[in-house]
Amino acid sequence: MQRWVKLPDGRFIDANSIVFVGKVDSFNRYDEDGNDLGIAYSVNLGTGFPREHQINVVGSKDEIAVLLRNVLGANSSAAQSPAT
User: Fold this and answer.
1) Is this model's pTM higher than 0.90 or not?
2) Which of 16, 23, 49, 75 lies 20 to 30 Å from 66, alpha-carbon distance?
3) Residue 71 DSSP SS3
4) H helices of 1-84, where?
5) What is the tens place of the pLDDT at every residue in 20-51?
């Protein structure tokens, strides 16, 4: 069963096809005029190990946090049910 996750730039990816999640990096964002846009975050997602199967996702802290939560399955019913 496919589990589609929306990326911050509007594209979708099947969370079950992701085989690795890279380290989250932060950096300063600037527009084309050199104005500071604040801090941005990026994470590398891979659906395979060749370079062509990797995607670098950039967004705000909240967008990247929601993405990782969805990819790692924090919204699944098993993760939300209390342990007995």
Assistant:
1) no
2) 49
3) helix
4) 61-71, 77-80
5) 999 999 999 999 999 999 999 999 999 988 88
Could you tell me how far CA 62 lies from the centroid of its own chain? Answer: 10
Structure tokens at 3: 């589990």
70 in Cβ contact with 59 (< 8 Å):
no
Predicted confidence at residue 42, as pLDDT, reads 95
Extract the tokens encoding 29.
């964002």
All structural domains of the chain with their residue ranges:
4-73
* Closest among 19, 18, 12, 14 to 2, alpha carbons compared: 14
63: nearest Cα among 2, 3, 11:
11
Residue 47 contacts by C-beta under 8 Å, 6 or more apart in sequence?
Answer: 13, 17, 18, 19, 53, 54, 55
The number of residues in the chain equals 84
